[in-house]
Amino acid sequence: VKRITTNTIQEMKQKGEKIAMLTSYDYSMATIVDEGGIDVILVGDSASNVMAGHETTLPITLDQMIYHAASVVRAVKRALVVVDLPFGSYQGNSKEALNSAIRIMKESGAHAVKLEGGLEIRESVERIITAGIPVMGHLGLTPQSIYKFGTYTVRAKEEAEAEKLKQDILVLQEAGCFSVVLEKIPAKLAKEVTDSVKIPTIGIGAGQHCDGQVLVINDMIGLTKGFKPRFLRQYLNLFEEINGAVQSYVKDVKAGGFPNEKEQY
Ligand code: KIV
Ligand code: NA
């Protein structure tokens, strides 16, 4: 199979071909997602929520991100693997940012890193790219700043924040980012900024005009019970499927029906 690279992703925008991205955090899931034909796998710091059960993405560590990333990389044959730099591993110190990115690349074998923010992290982005590490940006709702925002509602509805986002995407393009995630912003603004840059935008809750789409795999297959924001299309209800399987197993074991004659040595 031909591997997807950052160049492939950029060519897709030029050809008007949409980019499909999903998260994965472990070997088994990444195998299925890669074989399903996904273009980009994001080892998101949403692992903090869906894997570790934290309320926010802030607690996850660089070591934990590397563990998830290495597990995913071992599974992937085709997709581009992008890894989130976790909270505290890059903000405000470009040397530390570079060291964190280098650790991810060396210790996991991933292909690129993702950082949240615009102008504030410009120096870090430039320094990482100078070292030869591709960077994906992330604007709009940036969950590592949740305590600054206060809520997970739609961002950049007001003119001032929309203006800053328009500037930030140009800063990220100028700094050399190969792509940018746009999270939870109005579709109209997403279209405007998508048209304003050469690099592909990948939306989550950012409407149909982005160059690509991303969802958290656990949400998309219905593993996260009760999480149903408007932007989420749930393709399966695996919570119910697995819950049903567990109930059947418990019933079988309790009734002495498992294992049967054929299922033993
Ligand atoms: O961590 C994550 O899953 C993400 C996506 C939602 C873009 O950053
Ligand atoms: Na993230």
Write a concise keyword list for the protein shown above:
globular; eight-stranded parallel β-barrel; 8 strands; EC 2.1.2.11; magnesium; 43% helix; 265 residues; Pyrv/PenolPyrv_kinase-like_dom; binds sodium ion; binds 3-methyl-2-oxobutanoic acid; alpha/beta; 14% strand; magnesium ion binding; 3-methyl-2-oxobutanoate hydroxymethyltransferase activity
Explain what this protein looks like in three dimensions.
With 265 residues, the chain is of the alpha/beta class. The protein is built from 11 helices and 8 strands. It has helices spanning 6-15, 27-35, 47-50, 62-75, 94-108, 122-130, 146-149, 159-175, 187-196, 217-220, 238-254; strands at 19-23, 40-43, 80-84, 112-114, 135-140, 179-183, 201-204, 212-215. Strands 1-2-3-4-5-6-7-8 form an 8-stranded parallel beta barrel, surrounded by 7 helices. Helix 6 links the parallel strand 4 and strand 5 (135-140). The model has no long low-confidence stretch (mean pLDDT 98). It binds 3-methyl-2-oxobutanoic acid and sodium ion. Residues 23, 42, 44-46, 84, 181, 183, 204, 214, 216 line the site of 3-methyl-2-oxobutanoic acid (KIV).
